[in-house]
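Kindly inspect the following:
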Amino acid sequence: MSEQTARESAADGRRVVVVGAGMAGVQTAVALREQGFAGTITLIGAEPHKPYDRPPLSKGLLLGKAEDSAFDVDFASLGIDLRLGVEALGVRPADHELDTVAGPVPYDALVLATGAEPVRLPGTDDAPDVHLLRTLDDAERLRPVLAGQHEIVVVGAGWIGAEFATAAREAGCAVTVVEAADRPLAEALPEEAAAPMAGWYESAGVELRTGARVERVEPGAVVLSDGSRLPAGAVVVGIGARPATAWLAGSDIALGTYGEVLADDRLRTSAEDVYAVGDCVSFPSARYGERLLVHHWDNALQGPRTVAADILEAGTAPYDPVPYFWSEQFGRFVQYAGHHAAADRTVWRGAPEDAAWTLCWLRENRLIALLAVGRPRDLAQGRRLIESGRTLDAGVLADPARPLKEAVAG
Protein backbone atom coordinates (compact mmCIF):
# COMPACT_ATOMS: atom_id res chain seq x y z
CA MET A 1 0.00 0.00 0.00
CA SER A 2 1.41 3.42 -0.98
CA GLU A 3 1.91 6.13 1.63
CA GLN A 4 -0.84 8.20 0.01
CA THR A 5 -3.26 5.28 -0.03
CA ALA A 6 -2.49 4.57 3.60
CA ARG A 7 -3.30 8.16 4.51
CA GLU A 8 -6.54 8.01 2.54
CA SER A 9 -7.52 4.77 4.21
CA ALA A 10 -6.82 6.19 7.65
CA ALA A 11 -8.89 9.26 6.78
CA ASP A 12 -12.00 7.22 5.87
CA GLY A 13 -14.72 7.86 8.41
CA ARG A 14 -13.15 11.00 9.85
CA ARG A 15 -15.29 14.12 10.07
CA VAL A 16 -13.82 17.52 9.22
CA VAL A 17 -15.97 20.55 9.97
CA VAL A 18 -15.03 23.94 8.50
CA VAL A 19 -16.60 27.05 10.05
CA GLY A 20 -16.74 29.95 7.61
CA ALA A 21 -17.70 29.76 3.94
CA GLY A 22 -15.47 32.51 2.57
CA MET A 23 -12.28 32.03 0.58
CA ALA A 24 -10.35 30.36 3.43
CA GLY A 25 -13.14 27.96 4.33
CA VAL A 26 -14.01 26.99 0.77
CA GLN A 27 -10.38 26.48 -0.19
CA THR A 28 -9.82 24.31 2.89
CA ALA A 29 -12.68 22.02 1.91
CA VAL A 30 -11.46 21.86 -1.70
CA ALA A 31 -7.83 21.28 -0.66
CA LEU A 32 -8.86 18.35 1.53
CA ARG A 33 -10.46 16.62 -1.43
CA GLU A 34 -7.59 17.50 -3.77
CA GLN A 35 -5.10 16.00 -1.33
CA GLY A 36 -7.07 12.77 -1.01
CA PHE A 37 -9.21 13.14 2.09
CA ALA A 38 -12.01 10.59 1.81
CA GLY A 39 -13.93 11.34 4.98
CA THR A 40 -16.87 13.64 5.66
CA ILE A 41 -16.47 17.38 5.06
CA THR A 42 -19.05 19.82 6.43
CA LEU A 43 -18.75 23.49 5.42
CA ILE A 44 -20.78 25.87 7.59
CA GLY A 45 -21.49 29.48 6.63
CA ALA A 46 -23.41 32.12 8.57
CA GLU A 47 -24.64 33.93 5.45
CA PRO A 48 -27.51 32.48 3.39
CA HIS A 49 -25.77 33.13 0.08
CA LYS A 50 -23.82 30.61 -1.94
CA PRO A 51 -20.13 31.10 -0.98
CA TYR A 52 -18.62 34.06 -2.83
CA ASP A 53 -15.39 35.99 -3.31
CA ARG A 54 -15.09 39.35 -1.53
CA PRO A 55 -12.72 41.52 -3.67
CA PRO A 56 -15.38 42.14 -6.36
CA LEU A 57 -17.65 43.71 -3.72
CA SER A 58 -15.71 46.99 -3.82
CA LYS A 59 -15.12 46.83 -7.56
CA GLY A 60 -17.30 45.45 -10.36
CA LEU A 61 -20.17 44.13 -8.24
CA LEU A 62 -20.68 47.45 -6.46
CA LEU A 63 -21.02 49.27 -9.78
CA GLY A 64 -23.22 46.65 -11.36
CA LYS A 65 -20.48 45.55 -13.77
CA ALA A 66 -20.60 42.02 -12.37
CA GLU A 67 -23.70 40.21 -11.24
CA ASP A 68 -22.13 37.30 -9.41
CA SER A 69 -18.98 36.64 -7.42
CA ALA A 70 -19.88 33.11 -6.31
CA PHE A 71 -17.05 30.59 -6.25
CA ASP A 72 -17.04 28.18 -9.18
CA VAL A 73 -17.11 25.09 -6.97
CA ASP A 74 -19.46 22.14 -7.32
CA PHE A 75 -19.79 21.27 -3.66
CA ALA A 76 -22.13 18.34 -4.28
CA SER A 77 -19.78 16.60 -6.71
CA LEU A 78 -16.93 17.01 -4.21
CA GLY A 79 -19.03 15.46 -1.47
CA ILE A 80 -18.97 18.62 0.63
CA ASP A 81 -21.98 19.09 2.92
CA LEU A 82 -22.67 22.81 2.56
CA ARG A 83 -24.79 24.29 5.35
CA LEU A 84 -25.67 27.96 4.83
CA GLY A 85 -27.40 30.41 7.14
CA VAL A 86 -26.00 28.57 10.16
CA GLU A 87 -24.26 30.69 12.79
CA ALA A 88 -21.57 29.16 14.96
CA LEU A 89 -21.99 29.79 18.69
CA GLY A 90 -18.99 28.14 20.30
CA VAL A 91 -16.63 25.19 20.45
CA ARG A 92 -16.32 22.48 23.10
CA PRO A 93 -12.87 21.02 22.35
CA ALA A 94 -13.09 18.37 25.09
CA ASP A 95 -16.24 16.97 23.47
CA HIS A 96 -15.06 17.59 19.90
CA GLU A 97 -18.29 19.45 19.17
CA LEU A 98 -19.14 22.73 17.47
CA ASP A 99 -22.23 24.50 18.80
CA THR A 100 -24.43 26.22 16.19
CA VAL A 101 -27.90 27.74 16.04
CA ALA A 102 -28.99 24.51 14.37
CA GLY A 103 -27.57 22.34 17.15
CA PRO A 104 -24.23 20.69 17.94
CA VAL A 105 -22.01 19.36 15.14
CA PRO A 106 -19.47 16.66 16.08
CA TYR A 107 -16.01 16.71 14.49
CA ASP A 108 -12.74 14.84 14.38
CA ALA A 109 -10.96 17.92 13.04
CA LEU A 110 -12.32 21.46 13.13
CA VAL A 111 -11.12 24.38 10.97
CA LEU A 112 -11.89 27.94 12.03
CA ALA A 113 -12.21 30.19 8.97
CA THR A 114 -14.61 32.90 10.13
CA GLY A 115 -12.53 35.77 8.73
CA ALA A 116 -12.69 39.34 9.99
CA GLU A 117 -15.49 41.81 10.57
CA PRO A 118 -15.38 45.58 10.03
CA VAL A 119 -14.87 47.95 12.94
CA ARG A 120 -17.99 50.03 13.41
CA LEU A 121 -18.11 53.78 13.97
CA PRO A 122 -19.24 54.30 17.58
CA GLY A 123 -22.82 55.43 17.98
CA THR A 124 -23.93 54.49 14.45
CA ASP A 125 -25.24 50.95 14.88
CA ASP A 126 -28.84 51.98 14.15
CA ALA A 127 -28.15 54.86 11.75
CA PRO A 128 -29.95 54.03 8.46
CA ASP A 129 -27.57 55.93 6.18
CA VAL A 130 -24.32 54.53 7.65
CA HIS A 131 -22.91 51.60 5.68
CA LEU A 132 -20.16 49.01 5.91
CA LEU A 133 -18.72 47.08 2.98
CA ARG A 134 -17.88 43.52 3.92
CA THR A 135 -20.68 41.28 2.71
CA LEU A 136 -22.77 40.74 -0.40
CA ASP A 137 -25.76 42.28 1.38
CA ASP A 138 -23.66 45.37 2.19
CA ALA A 139 -22.81 45.78 -1.50
CA GLU A 140 -26.45 45.35 -2.53
CA ARG A 141 -27.52 48.09 -0.11
CA LEU A 142 -24.84 50.43 -1.46
CA ARG A 143 -25.56 49.95 -5.16
CA PRO A 144 -28.66 52.20 -5.22
CA VAL A 145 -26.77 54.79 -3.15
CA LEU A 146 -24.15 55.05 -5.87
CA ALA A 147 -26.74 54.94 -8.62
CA GLY A 148 -28.51 57.90 -6.98
CA GLN A 149 -25.27 59.91 -7.07
CA HIS A 150 -25.57 60.96 -3.44
CA GLU A 151 -23.08 63.08 -1.58
CA ILE A 152 -21.00 60.48 0.23
CA VAL A 153 -18.67 60.74 3.20
CA VAL A 154 -16.19 57.91 3.56
CA VAL A 155 -14.71 57.50 7.02
CA GLY A 156 -11.22 56.02 6.74
CA ALA A 157 -8.57 56.38 4.02
CA GLY A 158 -7.36 52.80 4.13
CA TRP A 159 -7.56 50.21 1.36
CA ILE A 160 -11.34 49.79 1.50
CA GLY A 161 -11.97 53.51 1.84
CA ALA A 162 -9.87 54.28 -1.24
CA GLU A 163 -11.48 51.51 -3.29
CA PHE A 164 -14.98 52.60 -2.37
CA ALA A 165 -14.16 56.27 -3.06
CA THR A 166 -12.88 55.19 -6.47
CA ALA A 167 -16.15 53.38 -7.26
CA ALA A 168 -18.27 56.24 -5.95
CA ARG A 169 -16.48 58.78 -8.13
CA GLU A 170 -16.88 56.51 -11.14
CA ALA A 171 -20.61 56.44 -10.38
CA GLY A 172 -20.69 60.25 -10.36
CA CYS A 173 -21.00 60.84 -6.63
CA ALA A 174 -19.45 63.75 -4.75
CA VAL A 175 -17.07 62.13 -2.28
CA THR A 176 -15.31 63.37 0.85
CA VAL A 177 -12.93 61.04 2.68
CA VAL A 178 -12.30 61.72 6.36
CA GLU A 179 -9.15 60.26 7.93
CA ALA A 180 -8.10 60.68 11.57
CA ALA A 181 -4.40 60.20 10.76
CA ASP A 182 -2.25 62.68 8.85
CA ARG A 183 -2.16 60.61 5.65
CA PRO A 184 -3.87 57.71 3.88
CA LEU A 185 -2.99 54.14 4.91
CA ALA A 186 -1.25 55.36 8.05
CA GLU A 187 -1.60 52.00 9.80
CA ALA A 188 -0.55 49.95 6.79
CA LEU A 189 2.41 51.86 5.33
CA PRO A 190 5.14 54.22 6.54
CA GLU A 191 4.92 57.89 5.64
CA GLU A 192 7.30 57.82 2.66
CA ALA A 193 5.15 55.15 0.97
CA ALA A 194 1.70 56.48 1.83
CA ALA A 195 2.28 60.24 1.50
CA PRO A 196 2.33 60.23 -2.34
CA MET A 197 -1.11 58.65 -2.36
CA ALA A 198 -2.75 61.75 -0.88
CA GLY A 199 -2.47 63.44 -4.26
CA TRP A 200 -4.37 60.63 -5.92
CA TYR A 201 -7.56 61.69 -4.15
CA GLU A 202 -7.40 65.25 -5.43
CA SER A 203 -6.67 64.15 -8.98
CA ALA A 204 -9.76 61.94 -8.86
CA GLY A 205 -11.97 64.77 -7.62
CA VAL A 206 -12.21 63.39 -4.08
CA GLU A 207 -11.85 65.76 -1.12
CA LEU A 208 -9.49 64.21 1.43
CA ARG A 209 -9.55 65.56 4.98
CA THR A 210 -6.73 64.21 7.12
CA GLY A 211 -6.32 64.79 10.86
CA ALA A 212 -10.11 64.85 11.04
CA ARG A 213 -12.19 62.89 13.54
CA VAL A 214 -15.90 62.20 13.38
CA GLU A 215 -17.81 63.58 16.36
CA ARG A 216 -21.20 62.24 15.32
CA VAL A 217 -23.42 61.39 12.38
CA GLU A 218 -26.68 63.25 11.97
CA PRO A 219 -29.40 62.84 9.34
CA GLY A 220 -27.85 64.22 6.17
CA ALA A 221 -24.54 65.25 7.72
CA VAL A 222 -21.30 64.17 9.38
CA VAL A 223 -20.09 66.43 12.16
CA LEU A 224 -16.34 66.53 12.80
CA SER A 225 -14.63 67.18 16.11
CA ASP A 226 -13.65 70.71 14.98
CA GLY A 227 -17.33 71.54 14.40
CA SER A 228 -17.25 71.18 10.60
CA ARG A 229 -20.41 69.76 9.04
CA LEU A 230 -20.09 67.68 5.90
CA PRO A 231 -23.25 67.04 3.84
CA ALA A 232 -23.82 63.31 3.54
CA GLY A 233 -26.59 61.47 1.80
CA ALA A 234 -24.74 58.34 2.90
CA VAL A 235 -21.77 57.47 5.09
CA VAL A 236 -19.47 54.54 4.39
CA VAL A 237 -17.21 53.37 7.21
CA GLY A 238 -13.86 51.77 6.45
CA ILE A 239 -11.79 52.11 9.61
CA GLY A 240 -10.36 48.62 9.79
CA ALA A 241 -11.34 45.07 10.61
CA ARG A 242 -10.91 42.69 13.51
CA PRO A 243 -10.93 38.89 13.56
CA ALA A 244 -14.47 37.53 13.82
CA THR A 245 -13.82 35.42 16.90
CA ALA A 246 -16.10 36.79 19.63
CA TRP A 247 -18.16 33.61 19.30
CA LEU A 248 -15.17 31.63 20.61
CA ALA A 249 -15.40 33.18 24.10
CA GLY A 250 -15.32 30.41 26.68
CA SER A 251 -14.03 27.84 24.21
CA ASP A 252 -10.53 27.66 25.77
CA ILE A 253 -8.96 28.43 22.38
CA ALA A 254 -6.09 30.90 22.84
CA LEU A 255 -6.66 34.35 21.33
CA GLY A 256 -4.25 37.23 20.76
CA THR A 257 -4.28 40.97 21.35
CA TYR A 258 -6.65 41.70 18.49
CA GLY A 259 -8.90 38.74 19.17
CA GLU A 260 -7.13 36.61 16.57
CA VAL A 261 -6.75 32.88 17.04
CA LEU A 262 -3.16 32.05 17.98
CA ALA A 263 -1.86 29.21 15.84
CA ASP A 264 1.48 27.49 15.36
CA ASP A 265 3.44 27.24 12.12
CA ARG A 266 1.08 24.50 10.86
CA LEU A 267 -1.97 26.63 11.69
CA ARG A 268 -2.88 24.39 14.64
CA THR A 269 -4.57 26.17 17.55
CA SER A 270 -4.12 25.59 21.27
CA ALA A 271 -7.01 23.08 21.20
CA GLU A 272 -6.40 19.55 20.00
CA ASP A 273 -7.64 18.87 16.45
CA VAL A 274 -8.64 22.52 15.92
CA TYR A 275 -7.04 24.60 13.14
CA ALA A 276 -7.48 28.21 12.04
CA VAL A 277 -6.91 29.81 8.65
CA GLY A 278 -7.33 33.15 6.89
CA ASP A 279 -8.15 36.53 8.43
CA CYS A 280 -9.02 35.18 11.88
CA VAL A 281 -5.59 33.73 12.75
CA SER A 282 -2.02 34.82 13.42
CA PHE A 283 0.97 32.54 12.93
CA PRO A 284 4.72 32.70 13.70
CA SER A 285 6.88 33.64 10.73
CA ALA A 286 10.48 32.43 10.78
CA ARG A 287 11.10 34.59 7.69
CA TYR A 288 10.21 37.80 9.54
CA GLY A 289 10.91 36.75 13.12
CA GLU A 290 7.50 37.69 14.47
CA ARG A 291 3.88 36.61 14.56
CA LEU A 292 1.85 37.80 11.55
CA LEU A 293 -1.84 38.63 11.32
CA VAL A 294 -2.57 38.94 7.61
CA HIS A 295 -5.97 40.23 6.44
CA HIS A 296 -5.42 39.59 2.75
CA TRP A 297 -7.02 37.42 0.08
CA ASP A 298 -3.80 35.59 -0.80
CA ASN A 299 -3.35 34.40 2.78
CA ALA A 300 -6.83 32.88 2.68
CA LEU A 301 -5.87 31.14 -0.55
CA GLN A 302 -2.54 29.68 0.60
CA GLY A 303 -3.18 28.66 4.20
CA PRO A 304 -5.79 25.98 3.44
CA ARG A 305 -3.22 23.78 1.69
CA THR A 306 -1.16 23.64 4.88
CA VAL A 307 -4.22 22.85 7.01
CA ALA A 308 -5.40 20.10 4.67
CA ALA A 309 -1.97 18.49 4.55
CA ASP A 310 -1.63 18.51 8.32
CA ILE A 311 -5.07 16.95 8.79
CA LEU A 312 -3.92 14.22 6.39
CA GLU A 313 -0.63 13.92 8.33
CA ALA A 314 1.27 14.49 5.11
CA GLY A 315 4.41 15.95 6.68
CA THR A 316 3.66 19.60 6.05
CA ALA A 317 6.31 22.30 5.84
CA PRO A 318 5.87 25.30 8.16
CA TYR A 319 3.41 27.90 6.94
CA ASP A 320 5.56 30.96 6.24
CA PRO A 321 4.33 32.75 3.10
CA VAL A 322 5.42 36.08 1.68
CA PRO A 323 2.28 38.13 2.32
CA TYR A 324 0.76 39.61 -0.83
CA PHE A 325 -1.96 42.18 -1.42
CA TRP A 326 -3.32 44.18 -4.33
CA SER A 327 -5.71 47.09 -4.75
CA GLU A 328 -7.18 49.12 -7.59
CA GLN A 329 -7.71 52.76 -6.70
CA PHE A 330 -7.97 56.03 -8.60
CA GLY A 331 -6.86 54.43 -11.88
CA ARG A 332 -3.80 52.77 -10.35
CA PHE A 333 -2.90 49.14 -9.79
CA VAL A 334 -1.21 48.89 -6.38
CA GLN A 335 0.55 45.71 -5.19
CA TYR A 336 2.37 44.94 -1.99
CA ALA A 337 4.43 41.89 -1.04
CA GLY A 338 6.35 41.05 2.11
CA HIS A 339 6.51 42.67 5.54
CA HIS A 340 8.53 45.86 5.91
CA ALA A 341 8.67 46.34 9.69
CA ALA A 342 12.29 45.18 10.14
CA ALA A 343 13.78 47.06 7.16
CA ASP A 344 17.01 49.02 7.63
CA ARG A 345 16.84 50.97 4.35
CA THR A 346 14.57 51.77 1.41
CA VAL A 347 15.28 52.09 -2.30
CA TRP A 348 13.01 53.84 -4.81
CA ARG A 349 12.60 52.59 -8.38
CA GLY A 350 11.23 55.69 -10.02
CA ALA A 351 9.91 58.78 -8.24
CA PRO A 352 6.66 58.97 -6.25
CA GLU A 353 5.33 61.69 -8.55
CA ASP A 354 5.68 59.33 -11.54
CA ALA A 355 2.73 57.38 -12.91
CA ALA A 356 4.49 54.14 -12.01
CA TRP A 357 7.04 53.45 -9.27
CA THR A 358 8.22 50.85 -6.80
CA LEU A 359 9.45 51.25 -3.24
CA CYS A 360 11.70 48.47 -1.93
CA TRP A 361 12.45 47.69 1.71
CA LEU A 362 15.79 46.00 2.44
CA ARG A 363 17.39 44.41 5.45
CA GLU A 364 21.10 43.65 5.22
CA ASN A 365 20.81 44.16 1.43
CA ARG A 366 18.10 41.53 1.12
CA LEU A 367 14.65 42.44 -0.11
CA ILE A 368 11.99 41.91 2.54
CA ALA A 369 9.06 43.89 1.07
CA LEU A 370 8.05 46.08 -1.85
CA LEU A 371 5.18 48.31 -2.91
CA ALA A 372 4.65 48.48 -6.68
CA VAL A 373 2.39 51.06 -8.32
CA GLY A 374 1.74 50.23 -11.96
CA ARG A 375 4.79 47.94 -12.11
CA PRO A 376 3.45 44.36 -11.89
CA ARG A 377 6.69 42.88 -13.23
CA ASP A 378 8.57 44.39 -10.28
CA LEU A 379 6.10 42.74 -7.95
CA ALA A 380 6.38 39.31 -9.55
CA GLN A 381 10.19 39.37 -9.61
CA GLY A 382 10.44 40.97 -6.18
CA ARG A 383 8.24 38.38 -4.56
CA ARG A 384 10.57 35.65 -5.79
CA LEU A 385 13.59 37.58 -4.51
CA ILE A 386 12.00 37.89 -1.08
CA GLU A 387 11.41 34.14 -1.03
CA SER A 388 14.99 33.41 -2.09
CA GLY A 389 16.60 35.81 0.41
CA ARG A 390 19.39 36.64 -2.04
CA THR A 391 21.69 39.65 -1.55
CA LEU A 392 20.99 42.59 -3.89
CA ASP A 393 23.00 45.40 -5.42
CA ALA A 394 21.14 48.55 -4.30
CA GLY A 395 22.56 50.58 -7.19
CA VAL A 396 21.08 48.26 -9.80
CA LEU A 397 17.88 47.99 -7.80
CA ALA A 398 17.39 51.76 -7.96
CA ASP A 399 17.40 51.82 -11.77
CA PRO A 400 13.74 51.47 -12.88
CA ALA A 401 14.86 50.77 -16.45
CA ARG A 402 16.51 47.49 -15.43
CA PRO A 403 14.53 44.39 -14.46
CA LEU A 404 14.47 44.01 -10.72
CA LYS A 405 15.87 40.48 -10.92
CA GLU A 406 19.12 41.88 -12.34
CA ALA A 407 19.86 43.41 -8.96
CA VAL A 408 20.98 40.04 -7.58
CA ALA A 409 24.56 40.57 -6.40
CA GLY A 410 27.30 38.33 -7.79
